[in-house]
């Protein structure tokens, strides 16, 4: 039985969250020596609780910190292609435990201001107490942010739409568009064509017709809730914006499937 079939079965039996929690303990045990070595080598690096790290990506301290730095550099390099970096207001939508945003002041300069928002109250509590010089907000799954219209020059969301319902896609995109300045740029990742190989036959038929694929039966917003995005659906979702680019990436390993990035400009 394929991994995707096992996942689907666990989802139908309402056991996927339990299985994912067990996977967390396995991953923490597997990385215990590596993580201990990282803490010894970097005693001044403030780290979130283990489960917050796991929820954000991998149960790996080096990947959280240095991998987060690498991702932040990659993201800033993409920003540079479409906007300047001076004196910007930047929003990390779905910031998690600060994996990327904590590195941005060093990479973009202190003249910009950085905001992070996330629906997980525990991760926002940790961010607020441990990452200084940022503006953090605890949102809910409801598409509502405490910012005025036309606030941000740059908004990015890395693997956030990938964990939302179809309805939430439209509601959250409208809210992000509202708080983006005219001429502002938005960077959003989706599980696009690279993920076709993970779909079931029935899902693939719908995907090829341009329909978003939702795997729910777990809490919306959690890492086990998944959405897959055909190009037609995404273009329709972003129809009121100027699509500056659609970046598709390849991978040399089966363990990591890269998401697409859509670059949008508010008209």
Automatic annotation (TrEMBL):
It comes from the Bacteria. InterPro entries: Methyltransf_25, SAM-dependent_MTases_sf. Keywords: Methyltransferase, Transferase. One of its GO terms (biological process) is methylation. GO terms for molecular function: methyltransferase activity. Residues 90-184 form the Methyltransferase domain. Pfam families: Methyltransf_25 (PF13649). It comes from Patiriisocius marinus. This is Methyltransferase domain-containing protein.
């Amino acid at each position: 039985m394929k991994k995707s079939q096992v996942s689907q079965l666990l989802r139908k039996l309402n056991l996927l969250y339990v299985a994912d929690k067990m996977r967390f303990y396995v991953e923490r045990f597997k990385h215990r020596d590596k993580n201990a070595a990282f803490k010894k080598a970097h005693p001044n690096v403030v780290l979130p609780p283990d489960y917050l790290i796991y929820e954000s990506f991998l149960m790996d301290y080096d990947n959280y910190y240095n991998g987060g730095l690498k991702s932040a550099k990659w993201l800033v390099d993409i920003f540079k292609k479409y906007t300047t970096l001076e004196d910007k207001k930047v929003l990390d939508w779905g910031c998690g435990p600060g994996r990327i945003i904590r590195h941005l002041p060093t990479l973009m300069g202190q003249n910009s201001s950085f905001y992070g928002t996330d629906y997980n109250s525990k991760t926002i509590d940790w961010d607020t107490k441990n990452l200084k010089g940022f503006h953090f907000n605890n949102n809910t799954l409801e598409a509502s942010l405490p910012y005025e219209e036309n606030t941000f020059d740059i908004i990015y969301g890395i693997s956030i739409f990938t964990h939302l319902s179809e309805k939430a896609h439209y509601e959250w995109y409208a809210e992000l568009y509202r708080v983006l300045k005219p001429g502002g740029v938005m960077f959003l990742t989706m599980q696009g064509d690279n993920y076709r190989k993970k779909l079931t036959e029935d899902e693939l038929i719908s995907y090829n017709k341009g329909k978003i694929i939702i795997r729910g039966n777990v809490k919306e917003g959690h890492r086990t809730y998944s959405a897959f995005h055909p190009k037609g659906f995404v273009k329709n979702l972003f129809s009121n914006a100027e699509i500056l680019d659609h970046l598709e990436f390849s991978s040399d390993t089966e363990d990591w499937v890269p998401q697409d990035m859509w670059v949008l400009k508010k008209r």
